[in-house]
């Protein structure tokens, strides 16, 4: 398969077909001049800086607000608080015992 590709490209090169026409290249630009592109880039740079400043101010305002602190939550029955000691003692099972 690879040899067939090499052979066909060699034949095309010998015939002179392998040279692409530079005028047939596809242009991906919008056709705008360099001056227009520079103005557009400067515009989006300014928009970016304004957005960064606005987001920073909004974050500062939101984070500087106080938030409410509530008292102890009521003892809801579904929490099933365990008041009995563990079978292995008051410490956790894998905690280092510091009682002497």
TrEMBL record:
InterPro entries noted in UniProt: Cyt_c_oxidase_su6a, Cyt_c_oxidase_su6a_sf
NAD among keywords: no
GO BP, one annotated term: mitochondrial electron transport, cytochrome c to oxygen
Keyword Transit peptide in annotation: yes
GO molecular function, one term: enzyme regulator activity
Keywords carried by this UniProt record: Membrane, Mitochondrion, Mitochondrion inner membrane, Transit peptide
Locations listed in the record: Mitochondrion inner membrane
One Gene Ontology CC term in the entry: mitochondrial inner membrane
PANTHER family, A to Z: CYTOCHROME C OXIDASE POLYPEPTIDE VIA, CYTOCHROME C OXIDASE SUBUNIT
Protein name: Cytochrome c oxidase, subunit VIa
Source organism per UniProt: Cynara cardunculus var. scolymus (Globe artichoke)
């Amino acid at each position: 398969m690879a040899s067939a590709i090499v052979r066909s490209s060699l034949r095309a090169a010998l015939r002179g077909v392998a040279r692409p026409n530079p005028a047939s290249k596809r242009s991906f630009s919008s056709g705008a001049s360099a001056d227009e592109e520079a103005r557009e880039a400067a515009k989006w740079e300014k928009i970016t800086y304004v957005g960064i400043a606005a987001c920073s101010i909004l974050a500062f305002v939101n984070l500087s607000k106080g938030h409410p602190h509530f008292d102890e939550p009521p003892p809801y029955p579904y929490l099933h608080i365990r008041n009995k000691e563990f079978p292995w003692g008051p410490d956790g099972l894998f905690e280092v015992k510091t009682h002497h």
